[in-house]
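Supplementary Methods S3. Complex input for the flavin-adenine dinucleotide-bound model.
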Amino acid sequence: MTKTIVIGAGTAGAALAARISEDRDREVLVIEAGSVSSDFSPELLDGSNVQAAMPGHPANWAYPAQLTPEVPYVIARGRVLGGSSTINGGYFVRARPEDCDAWADAAGPTWSYAALLPTMRALESDADLGTGGLHGGSGPMPVRRAPQDNPAARAFTAAALELGFSFEDDKNAPGLPGVGAVPSNIVDGVRVNTGLAYLANARSRPNLQLLGNTRALRIMFDGTRAVGVETSAGTLYGDEIVVCAGGIGTPHLLLTSGIGPRAQLEALGIAVVADLPVGASFSDHADIGLKWCAKPAVSTAAERFAFPTALNFFSGVPNPGGRDRSLTGDLEVLLSVKPVDYLLSGTWGEASRDDGEELELIVGAQASKGRGSITLNSADPLDVPRIDYRYLELAADRARLRCGIRTAVALLQTAAFSELFDGLSDLDTATLGDDELLDAWMRAHLGTAIHLCGSAPMGPVVDAHGRVHKTRGLRIADTSILPTVPSRGPAATAVLIGEVIAKAIRAGD
Ligand SMILES: Cc1cc2nc3c(=O)[nH]c(=O)nc-3n(C[C@H](O)[C@H](O)[C@H](O)COP(=O)(O)OP(=O)(O)OC[C@H]3O[C@@H](n4cnc5c(N)ncnc54)[C@H](O)[C@@H]3O)c2cc1C
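Predicted complex, serialized as structure tokens:
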């Protein structure tokens, strides 16, 4: 019997483990640093907020990072069954066909949109559109579109149409970007993480074992063949190791195991197993929450979606040498209908509805040219890695985000918003009108969507089946293998990666 060790029961890892353990001739052992209990605490299930994204929550790795050399930030990542899908916003949008086709250019035809579409359908149960040719109705991940009856959601869509943007009636279908309902994996208020969706039933299989609260420290090699994993609970041996530790955990583990840039590893005294550009060039979505006052208040405790509607569009900023972004859009404005305090704490303030409330339009740069890096601070696997985003270094990236902020303000200033919009909280007209002032404001308000991808990409580090170059018996299956971050949130793509690499494993590719 072949024994496969899966490191990380996260978004991709849970899907992959469930699929490969369908093969009863395979023994599957999943190692997860966090809890693997299926008894999730209430805040991990409550899809109306993201409480566990706050540093200090036990299900959050909370990595220190620099968004720019001057802007420190704490990066949330799930450390629990389901990984980041257990603590995220629940927005579940497919990568665009153009994103996939760009990955296929780097990795081969397995990653083209046409080749991926059957798996995109198979992984979902789309309650709204599941019977159509583009959608699935019987896969593990539930997909629902948020109701659009909140007054701010109605105003947002009308405002986008007033500014001349198109209506996008299915954000999971090919076509030009526009304004429309956000597909999500939140059902009756419950954020359905991949631990629930894929492993609730599969975990009783005799050939599948989940080992929680167990951290992988190093991959062990015989020459260049991966043979086992040194963990906080001892050494475990297997025929194949699949690393699903996520965009940060995966490069960190590879680097401490001797897979990475030779000079970096040798400087720290780590024996080099394979000289590969791990952690050298990741991409993510810079974002900024534009705070505005809604009067009267629009949020209600009964409403279970925080992010019902989004506008995706093209900034018009050229992308020399890159793909035409007018088809996919390079900016997103995501409407939040929950006050920021509620999103982060899950508790309501005391203010009356007539006082209004502070909400955010989250402006995301979905196709930045700038790249970040993950490197080791030390050879100790328990030390945190160094994460440098280098956001907004490039003039084109600053121009795109300025366009996003100005468009978000323009949406709030339309006739459609006139009954609701009671001013911006912390952006004045003089700053908005001046590129240099606006750049300084953006730096001061900068955040990240926490969509980090590409830290062990297909092409330079792994092949189309996740096999790590220059090694044997070692694969990666998580968002670190994407050559670039998709131009939408990556959660749906993380599940897709688990499915695609599981298929390759079962086919012996
Ligand atoms: C707060 C937050 C909000 C987000 N909101 C959205 C959203 O609304 N929509 C969207 O599309 N995307 C969102 N994202 C991003 C998206 O959730 C992630 O990109 C995606 O889930 C990553 O999947 P993954 O499988 O690559 O990694 P993960 O899901 O992070 O899984 C990695 C797993 O590996 C485990 N692990 C790591 N290191 C080790 C080790 N050494 N030993 C053992 N186990 C280890 C981790 O504990 C974790 O369970 C959000 C992310 C965060 C953090």
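Residues 67 and 389 are 5 Å apart (CA to CA). The chain has two domains: 1-68+77-141+192-276+453-509, 147-181+286-367+392-445.
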